[in-house]
């Protein structure tokens, strides 16, 4: 459940571990939970997700993180807490790492994801049915990286976020058209992708 991503920049100051939250109750119930009103206080990790995190922490194969930054949704907060506890680190919330907002599909079945992704492939700016544009997600996710690149040096920073935002971020870091974000290898729950300085 791990990937190593070679970004186009050779001038990284830090290493980043991009982690998707563990399997969640939303995954289990096949629901789209993308609004803070639903996602911050509910739909945390499923029992499977808890087991995934226990395994990841027990078999940690990455540099030890210096910081843990996470989306404030419950599923990402719980994921970050498992890693932070293992390494005795403080956690910091960053709303820019939140799930992509899926607009009118919020609370609906996850069968609607492919419909949105098909539109993404034609237009990274679309906001069909109030879905957050891919370009908007990319901007906020890149802003997190830019912030830490400006603030710190030679650190390993764990960023805990969600599947769509992380795939969009990886697409942006690769310098590829954002409309191609679904061509990235799908990020599995509790997976970690390394980017940045070696």
Automatic annotation (TrEMBL):
InterPro entries, alphabetized: His_Pase_superF_clade-1, His_PPase_superfam
Gene3D superfamilies the UniProt entry points to: Phosphoglycerate mutase-like
Superkingdom assignment: Bacteria
Protein name in UniProt: Histidine phosphatase family protein
């Amino acid at each position: 459940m791990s990937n190593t991503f070679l970004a186009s920049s050779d001038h990284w100051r830090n290493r980043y571990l991009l982690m998707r939250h563990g399997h969640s109750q939303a995954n289990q119930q096949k629901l789209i939970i993308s609004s803070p009103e639903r996602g911050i206080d509910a739909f945390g990790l499923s029992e499977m997700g808890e087991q995934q995190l226990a395994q990841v922490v027990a078999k940690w194969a990455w540099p030890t993180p210096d910081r843990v930054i996470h989306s404030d949704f419950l599923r990402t907060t719980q994921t970050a807490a498992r890693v932070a506890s293992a390494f005795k680190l403080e956690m910091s919330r960053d709303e820019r790492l939140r799930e992509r907002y899926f607009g009118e599909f919020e609370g609906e079945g996850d069968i609607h994801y492919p419909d949105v992704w098909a539109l993404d492939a034609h237009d990274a700016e679309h906001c069909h049915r109030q879905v957050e544009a891919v370009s908007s997600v990319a901007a906020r996710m890149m802003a997190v990286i830019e912030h830490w690149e400006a603030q710190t040096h030679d650190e390993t920073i764990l960023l805990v976020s969600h599947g769509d935002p992380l795939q969009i971020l990886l697409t942006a870091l690769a310098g590829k058209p954002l409309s191609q974000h679904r061509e990235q290898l799908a990020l599995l729950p509790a997976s970690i992708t390394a980017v940045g300085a070696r």
